[in-house]
Amino acid sequence: MALKHEPPTTPHHSAQEALRVLETVARSSTGVTDADLARHTRIGPERLTALLRMLRREGYVEQIADGAYVTGETLARLGSAHHREQTLREKLQHTLDRLRDSVGAAVYMSRYVDG
């Protein structure tokens, strides 16, 4: 379902722009250039560059060899029920890694089964 392109409200402006970029990238099966993204989303070049950098870093889009953008693994997992468990495991592992680094000791997760 496509979002309506209403005038953005100040607190949600960045999120609305990022969603417009993601919608545009997702509609293209062969990739979309930054020039096409700018034209379709009406986002200025500096702002678009910053958004694309953030979306690439987070894995929502990927830049392919010819410079075009395609949807990334994070976006695919977000919409896929099949990968929800994997995403949860990765988030848990990331949290455990941060905890390990902050306390300087091994951190383990176990499962308690009442029985």
TrEMBL record:
It comes from the Bacteria. PROSITE patterns: HTH_ICLR. Residues 12-73 form the HTH iclR-type domain. This is HTH iclR-type domain-containing protein. Signal peptide: none annotated.
